Inverse folding.
């Protein structure tokens, strides 16, 4: 029942997130034919921005590149990070400001288990949120006369989830520190925003950014999987999760 | 004499600079109805939280049902065997009454289905209604149901009748009394309502500023506490009693009033030696004992 | 069958209930051999602690007012044993009635009378041996 309770608590976030992502993915695929002409008429503004835009345009000229750029590097990436932050909040520390923490804590369930079930339920939801809209891409591509590899889709989805685990773990960690829901959300979004802005302006850092791991930049360019990046992300996520467990166990309610 | 169901020795807890509980010794006998009285902020809820592992004590030790409150694995066993109602009666407001029952039931192997349906009916709780739509009184009743249906041997209730109308209060007290009559259950409850404590409790503890000021069997407290009223010819002399048992002395012109908890006869002797014109010994109500013992600390 | 005791009185509930039973026997509302209601029923009806009711029955048995029969319940004791007690109580009534009347004539009110009585009982306790159950436990 603990799983079901956490599902009840997060289902609106899940459904709205899913609806939006599905809409974006469908729209992205179905409007692709219109993009082609815009790309042909591209006007280079010059300078650093120009350099950046030129690259973007080049990538988008192929279908694979278009999907990678628009979906796995942008819409899914940002959307998923936002959802990971939103789904990560909750838990007994938040409950204490709503007055239900004592009921939960009076149950014969360890705090560890409460946190673990919450994290696992959220993880399953996040996996589905990455998978379902992404799987629609090979499907919808057929409607516009293109094809997109199912295998590649799954690889990118896994990279998104496993690479993005840090954001989820961060949100969970923050939710054990702050009792209001807004602070973890704001901090999580701020971190993602800063990371993405930095990599736009300082392209040297881009390959090392977690965002690059999640979007599978190296896989797109050279077919190489970012093993190191993944390992670091998972290790960091694991450490943050462990820290969350310790914090929750020691807290006075 | 069997082991007390709850036993604490020197329990302490401070929050920043404030000492919420400073050296509390508690001993709750099996099968008793134990009333825990105190003003707001006296340390009642903090004590209860320590017993259930929600708050870690700074010092001291405690055992509930034989399990240590400071050990995580033991604390789990305590909660498996205890029915608890918190002061704010907070329940998941996105769940319905029925869902709350479905959620709680599997966690307690000793759950009583018949008690659950009986209480649903007598408390008049609609299973399809969401918790957020329940009034405070209904929420309290639901919280009580979830605690009582667990079939536990110990009930820890923090202000169980708060927010209920008099008829509902009587209903709840009756259910508790019936429970005690039917089976071996110990009820430890905190309350502001002295009247209801007097009605059903057989033991009490009055806590003030984190310390126990009165503790024992209720009948003993009522029989041992007495007020001695003295009137003098001139103004009342400065009190100088050397015997233990005087809880409070009040002087007002020619009158002196002593609240006595023990050694009544010796104190009467000393009082007579002061050459009072009249010496009256009268019984005291629990309310008076409460008011005087929580004020005399100041 | 019992009246609701006053929980807030200075007199413990069990003492009040014991008095109720004794009074019922004196006035004939309860006769020898009659069964008293089960502890559980009394507790539920009056909404008081069953341990208190148990104490009432125990003390009454100790004083010989009732008998506790294993498995069957509580019964009013045989008239012959309770007789001596009951008759001295009946004899006491006119004495009390007289005293109260005279104190009223002196101008005392209820509270004053009660206080004097308590004081006198306390004085008694100090010195002489009493017939009452010992207070110090």
């Amino acid at each position: 029942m603990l799983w079901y309770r956490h599902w009840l608590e997060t289902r609106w976030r899940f459904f709205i997130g899913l609806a939006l992502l599905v809409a974006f993915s469908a729209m992205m695929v179905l409007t692709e034919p219109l993009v082609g002409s815009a790309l042909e008429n591209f006007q280079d503004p010059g300078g650093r921005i120009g350099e950046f835009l030129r690259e973007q345009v080049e990538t988008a000229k192929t279908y694979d590149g278009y999907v990678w750029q628009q979906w796995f590097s942008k819409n899914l990436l940002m959307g998923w990070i936002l959802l990971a932050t939103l789904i990560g909040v909750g838990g007994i520390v938040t409950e204490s400001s709503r007055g239900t923490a004592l009921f939960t804590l009076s149950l014969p369930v360890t705090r560890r288990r409460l946190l673990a079930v919450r994290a696992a339920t959220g993880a399953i939801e996040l996996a589905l949120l990455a998978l379902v809209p992404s799987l629609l891409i090979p499907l919808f591509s057929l409607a516009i006369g293109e094809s997109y590899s199912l295998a590649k889709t799954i690889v990118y989805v896994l990279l998104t989830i496993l690479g993005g685990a840090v954001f989820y773990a961060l949100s969970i960690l923050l939710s054990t520190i702050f009792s209001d829901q807004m602070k973890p959300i704001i901090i999580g979004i701020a971190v993602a925003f800063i990371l993405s802005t930095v990599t736009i302006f300082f392209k040297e850092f881009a390959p090392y950014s977690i965002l690059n791991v999640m979007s599978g930049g190296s896989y797109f360019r050279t077919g190489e999987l970012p093993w190191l990046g993944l390992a670091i992300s998972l290790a960091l996520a694991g450490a943050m999760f462990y820290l969350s467990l310790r914090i929750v166990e020691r807290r006075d309610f | 004499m069997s082991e007390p169901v709850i036993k604490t020795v020197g329990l302490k807890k401070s929050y920043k600079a404030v000492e919420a509980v400073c050296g509390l010794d508690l001993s709750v006998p099996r099968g008793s109805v134990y009333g825990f009285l105190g003003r707001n902020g006296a340390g009642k809820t903090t004590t209860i939280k320590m017993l259930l592992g929600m708050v870690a004590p700074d010092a001291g030790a405690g055992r509930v049902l034989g399990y240590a409150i400071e050990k995580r694995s033991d604390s789990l066993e305590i909660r498996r065997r205890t029915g608890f109602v918190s002061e704010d009666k907070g329940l998941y407001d996105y769940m319905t009454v029925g869902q709350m029952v479905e959620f709680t039931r599997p966690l307690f192997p000793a759950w009583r289905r018949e008690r659950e349906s009986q209480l649903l009916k007598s408390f008049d709780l609609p299973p399809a209604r969401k918790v957020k739509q329940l009034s405070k009184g209904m929420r309290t009743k639901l919280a009580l149901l979830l605690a009582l249906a667990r079939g536990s041997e110990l009930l820890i209730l923090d202000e169980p009748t708060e927010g209920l109308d008099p008829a509902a209060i009587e209903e709840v007290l009756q259910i508790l009394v019936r429970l005690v009559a039917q089976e071996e259950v110990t009820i430890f409850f905190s309350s502001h309502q002295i009247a209801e404590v007097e009605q059903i409790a057989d033991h009490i503890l009055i806590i003030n500023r984190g310390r126990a000021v009165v503790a024992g069997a209720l009948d003993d407290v009522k029989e041992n506490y007495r007020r001695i009223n003295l009137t003098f010819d001139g103004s009342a002399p400065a009190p100088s009693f050397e015997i233990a048992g005087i809880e409070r002395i009040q002087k007002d012109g020619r009158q002196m009033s002593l609240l006595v908890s023990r050694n009544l006869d010796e104190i009467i002797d000393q009082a007579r030696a002061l050459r009072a014109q009249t010496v009256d010994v009268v019984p005291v109500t629990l309310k008076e004992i409460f008011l005087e013992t929580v004020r005399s600390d100041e | 069958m019992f009246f609701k005791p006053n929980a807030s009185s200075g007199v413990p509930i069990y003492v009040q209930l014991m008095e109720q039973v004794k009074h019922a026997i004196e006035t004939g509302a309860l006769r020898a051999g009659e069964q008293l209601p089960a502890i559980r029923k009394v507790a539920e009806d009056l909404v008081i602690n069953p341990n208190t009711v148990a104490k009432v029955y125990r003390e009454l048995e100790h004083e010989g007012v009732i008998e506790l029969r294993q498995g069957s319940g509580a019964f009013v004791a045989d008239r012959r044993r309770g007789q001596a007690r009951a008759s001295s109580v009946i004899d006491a009534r006119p004495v009390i009635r007289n005293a109260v009347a005279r104190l009223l004539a002196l101008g005392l009110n209820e509270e004053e009378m009660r206080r004097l009585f308590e004081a006198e009982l306390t004085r008694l306790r100090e010195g002489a041996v009493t017939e009452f159950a010992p207070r110090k436990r």
Observations:
- The radius of gyration of chain C is 17 Å.
- Strands of chain C lie at 35-36, 66-69, 73-76.
- Chain C has five helices and three strands.
